[in-house]
Amino acid sequence: MVYILGQIFKFVSLLNSEKGAVSISAGVALGMVFGFIPSNFLIIGFLFFVFFIFRVNAAAMGLSWAFFKIFAFLLDPVFDQVGFWLLTSVSELRPFWIHMYNMPIIPWSRFNNSIVLGSVVIGAALFVPCLLIVKYLVKRYRESVLKKITSSKWFQAWRSTTVYKLYSKYTDIREQF
Amino acid sequence: MKFIRWKALIPFLLVAALIYVFAVYYMDRWLRLTLMEQGSRINGAFVEIDSLRLSFLQSRLVVQGIQATDSEDLMRNRFEINSVVADLKFLSLLKKKVVIENATVGGVQWSTPRKKPGRIPKAWLSKWKKEEKEEDGFLAQTVESLKSEIASKLPDFDLEKLGKKFDPRNIVKLEELESYQLASGLPKGMKDFAVHLKTDGQKLIQEKKAELANLRRQIESLDPRKVQSLQDILSSIQRVQKLKAELEAQRNSVKTAQRKLFSDVKGKFQEIASIREKLKGDIEHIKSKIGFGKLNIDRFSHSILGLSIIDRYKTLVYYYEKYRPILVGKKEDQIVIRKRAKGRTVLFPITDQTPKFLLSKLHLSSDTRENKTVPGNVRGFFQAEAKDVTTDLELLGRPTQITLLADFPNGVFSKAELGLGLKKANGILDTNLNGKVSGYGLRDVTLGEQSIFPIPLKNGMADWSLNVHVRDQKMKAQAQGDFSGLAYAFAKEKGVHPLVKILREIMQTIRAFDVEVIVQGEIKKPKLAIRSSFDQALKNGVLSLVKDKVRKAQAKAEAFVRKEVEERIAQAQKLLNQKKKELESLYQAQLNRVQQVENLAKSKLEELKRKQEAKLREKIPTDKLKKDLKDGFKKTFKF
Questions:
Q1: Average pLDDT over residues B385-409
Q2: I want to staple B71 with a disulfide (CB 3.0 to 4.6 A). Which of A96, A139, B44, B231 is the partner?
């Protein structure tokens, strides 16, 4: 719980900082893919690998995962239709699926399930647009909303408090280590 | 590469390793629960597994203490397996294929008692219900449909009806016997006939009596004193002659009526004689019904087993036709779509020669010799071997072979071997079933709880082999049996089922026979051929006993029918004779009366004649008439 709260605070501070816009947007986009895909240890494992290797904001990813998981349920019929179409109707892909089906490990991904394939394909297709949109929104947020907040009186008053100064000092020391 | 966190690779690998350890630790638990749940679903009652261990390093699965509850008796296990050890092919598992290279199933026990009732957890039931709504539920549906079809299609083995089918009293229905039916109707018929004779005879006699009285009156009214002239004389003579004619007519009509009545009685006698003729036909019918005559395999199976081989065969064909498409499976270039709780799964063709499921070798053993709860003839030592059991025979390219070996020290047969071979090429299924049974101790054969056919053997040898070959729609089934030097010993028991008694006596006469039954051709229109010395043995030995039984049954039935029919016939004959005598005396008396009236009429007429002549003589002057005639003659002939 402490870790989750810490991550959320980290996310808020990163969001409000001048850097890490790509990391946040990548986190949201990866969280979307996580949310779309039904639980499957092989695909989730791969996504975790991606998460660990690349600089992705964990809090953004976690929040995005939770958010898109709710929507994924509503989008299941769409995933089913897309996945089923790809698996059965596109004859050019048939040899590829057969090859995958007969490969080691790959069959455990349940790629031959219409919802799994549909969600992976849609998730992958929406990854880059989602990344770009979120990046743009973060930029817009920092330029307009954040500026307004930081220049507001109540925020100035908050910055002058001892609690904020102590917190600021704590974060500075933490960043140094 | 500022986007890549190289330092995170080590924590990731650590996390992955932790997840692997965690998964491996819980894999056994998950697999055990999954097997228990799916097993319970198929079994219809709780399936329990004591422990399960899957070792990836050794590629071995060890399952211990499997108990499958009997769905009809929750305090009893359908079977219990001590241990299952399966060597898996790890690389195939990566391809999501289950390839068992060697499996040993040991310590199988049947019908063992349970400590706790084997109810399926409610959570599973509700889960399955939900899944069945959403999924195809292929396996569950197949199992359910099989169960319900077996329950509805296969006839119950009703022991109660078994004896009745062979009981002559039930085989021959009295309603079928024409003579019995006619004889049964005889007493009433004869009674009615006697009443008819009596009433008709009495009516006739009354009529004739009245007519005779009238005639008598008319005859007596003929008074010679009333005759005055020649005209009166002539008319009197005419009346007398008319009365005489009428009398003759009456006499004839009485005789005709008598003849008619007698012919009616004769007809009845003929009717009785025809019942006797029909009795002969009925006795032939009894013989054909009770007697075995020619060996009718279907009727024989009906009589002995209470089941029709034809019905059994039809059921077999039904299931073959129904499940053949499943056995043949999909073609290589086809995909199969299965609906799942979430989405649809597409099964693609497999390109290598390893099917999705393959059991390369299985060895199963079961020792139920000491198990008292198992019905008698199932007790024994069983061993089964299976090779290349797979879901896709064609892909494997080798036939599936299943062999069952069984030793029955106290059972029906001393040794049994049964083999099944399944092969598929180009989508055509080739099935081969063969079996061999040797027997020394054919004793205490039981069916269910009740013993129906206990035939203890002193000594003897019985071997048989069965070979069924089905390819596509064509089949050839061949069964051969050699039973030599059989000798049976029976203790005389009271209250034994009549069928059992007959069977025992039959068995005692059989010493040796062999049999070959061949069924071949189109699966729906097979041709049956039986070559057997059993037929001869049946004729020589069995039939002699059966004939004796049949003869007794026939004699009993014949005596019964004869007695019933003859008694009725005798009664009818007696009644008829009595009535005939009565009628004869009655008509004789009536004829006498007619004779009397006739005599009276004759005497009256004679008397009348005499008196008329005398009167005429008195009135006519004869001498003068003579003289006148003489004178007249002389004058006339004077020359």
A1: 83
A2: B44
